[in-house]
Design brief:
The protein is mainly beta. The chain has 1 helix and 11 strands; from the N terminus they run αβββββββββββ. Strands 1-11-4-8-7 form a 5-stranded antiparallel sheet, with no helix packed on it. Strands 3-9-5-6 form a 4-stranded antiparallel sheet, with no helix packed on it. It has a two-stranded antiparallel sheet with strand order 2-10. The longest helix is centred in the N-terminal third of the chain and has 17 residues.
Length: 155
């Protein structure tokens, strides 16, 4: 029985290992495990394929001691060769009344939250910049370990 499970697991790893997953992910650690309004990490990524569609995610890791069931963020975006920064505001749900929505181990929880319902298309080739700002009434937000952006190409 154990050999069968091992062989099945090995075959799955080989099959999934051959699949091409095109993605970009960057995580930025917050100073002193707190996210203050003044700490606004900028994440740069290069897009060369303007014909494909992409899914954008906000990622966050926090402790069980995080005091809220959501987080409000501002996402600033700048296109290649453009000096104008576009701003969007999001409410990111992190918990229900009974449990955290992300995956957890011990007292640490990870969330990957889709920012746009539909996949997006990048119109220009080049270097894009996304800047994250926490937009909560409390400053700093304690027990936030890191935040980031994940971009997956839709096949």
């Amino acid at each position: 029985m154990t050999v069968r499970i091992f062989i099945s697991t090995l075959l799955m790893l080989i099959l999934f290992g051959c699949a091409k997953v095109e993605l970009f992910e960057k995580v930025v650690f917050t100073p002193n495990q707190q996210w203050s309004n003044s700490f606004q990490p900028a994440i740069e990524f290069d897009i060369q394929d303007t014909t494909s569609m992409y899914r954008l995610y906000f990622t966050i890791r926090h402790a069980d001691a995080y005091a809220f069931n959501n987080i409000w963020i501002k996402l600033y975006s700048k296109l290649p060769g453009d000096s104008i920064e576009r701003q969007e505001r999001y409410e990111i749900p992190l918990a229900t009344e009974k449990r955290w929505l992300g995956s957890g181990m011990g007292d640490v929880y990870d969330h990957r939250v889709l920012l746009y319902k539909d996949p997006v298309k990048f119109s220009k080739k080049g270097l894009y910049t996304l800047r994250l700002e926490q937009d909560m009434r409390v400053d700093p937000l304690e027990y936030v370990f890191n935040v980031g952006i994940r971009i997956e190409k839709v096949n």
